[in-house]
Amino acid sequence: MPLALSSCRTRETLPNGQVIRLRPIRPNDRDQLRKEFLKLSQETVRDRFFSIKLDLTPAELTYFTEVDFEHHVALVAELETAGAPKPVAVARLVRMSGQPDHAEIAITVTDAMQGLGIGKIMLLRLSECARELGIRHMDASVLAENTRMMRLLRKSGLDFSTTVHNGIQTISVAL
User: Fold this and answer.
1) Would you write out the chain's pLDDT as a tens digit for each of its 175 residues?
2) Complete DSSP assignment for 101-113
3) What's 57's domain CATH number?
4) CB neighbours of 80 closer than 8 A, spacing ≥ 6?
5) How many domains does the chain have?
6) Cα-Cα end-to-end distance for the chain
7) In terms of Cα–Cα distance, which of 20, 122, 36, 27 is closest to 65?
8) CA–CA gap between residue 90 and residue 49 (Å, rounded)
9) 73, 89, 77: which is closest to 130 by C-alpha?
10) What is the pLDDT of residues 98-107, one digit of tens each?
11) Buried b or exposed e, range 47-67, using 16+ CB within 10 angstroms
């Protein structure tokens, strides 16, 4: 059964007073997702994709924005502004084939908004979504030198373990 999309929505105030809203990703986010991706630093792109990518392919954009909220959940964090809301992060979980109680997660926060707690908010919301879907373990594969993700996990309060193989660190979160 798909996730209730209402459980994907929340409004949070960051420590600096700015307000973000989390919501489910939509197919019509495709162009904005690409636009924001093109603004990411090489370091942020490398941390997310393990290599430098100059752009997202049409197939990747479809995969990232057309999700079923049962096997693949994706959330967008938007900064409330005087004008239109500004997307500042995307978080997703994808149920692992053959292991319905496990999911792979990924979180990307725009460079200008890193370090403000958005990643933690998104990780905790993904955890809630995962529990609602019957997922009991979330795994994140990150480059071994990705210290930002380790800091995020330590601050989250979630129980996790790590293993490293060939420069890739697998972080397992027990729910």
Assistant:
1) 677 777 788 999 999 999 999 999 999 999 999 999 999 999 999 999 988 999 999 999 999 999 999 999 999 999 998 888 999 999 999 999 999 899 999 999 999 999 999 999 999 999 999 999 999 999 999 888 888 888 888 888 888 898 999 989 898 999 9
2) EEEEEEEEE-GGG
3) 3.40.630.30
4) 18, 19, 20, 21
5) 1
6) 19
7) 27
8) 14
9) 73
10) 998 999 999 9
11) bbeeeeeeebeeeebeebbeb
pTM above 0.85, yes or no: yes
By residue range, what is the domain housing residue 28? Answer: 5-174
Q: How far apart are CA 105 and CA 101, in angstroms?
A: 13
Contact assessment for residue 76 and residue 87, using Cβ atoms and an 8 Å cutoff: yes
To the nearest 10°, the Cα dihedral for 76, 89, 34, 173? -90
